[in-house]
Design brief:
Blueprint (H helix, E strand, L loop, with lengths): L2 H15 L4 H19 L3 H14 L3 H14 L4 H17 L1
């Protein structure tokens, strides 16, 4: 699952939960398009790191750890690999 998908899903939930008027929905849809354009231009390591951070916030530490491991494996020389190692170490420390 990529960050764009998660972002779209989150925005759609907001739109569906939104009890506001038509204008609020239009604004949310425009924000969805805007963020899709921004994240469509980013690098894969950054996207994966954002996904892992999102998973941590959702208390899905198992999936977050898997994503961090994927960053380390697929993008070992990136700045995100270093960050992923640190987060992975903290997650594994929390499991004990």
């Amino acid at each position: 699952m990529d960050f764009q998908f998660l972002l779209w899903q989150y925005c759609l939930q907001i739109v569906n939960l939104n009890k506001g008027g038509f204008m609020n929905r239009v604004i949310l849809i425009l924000l969805m398009i805007f963020f899709t354009a921004i994240y469509g231009c980013s690098n894969k390591a950054a996207e994966l790191y954002d996904i892992a951070q999102f998973e941590e916030k959702q208390k899905n530490n198992k999936h977050a750890a898997e994503v961090y491991e994927e960053i380390i494996k697929k993008h070992p020389d990136s700045e995100y690999a270093k960050k992923a190692k640190e987060r992975l170490s903290e997650l594994k420390g929390d499991e004990k």
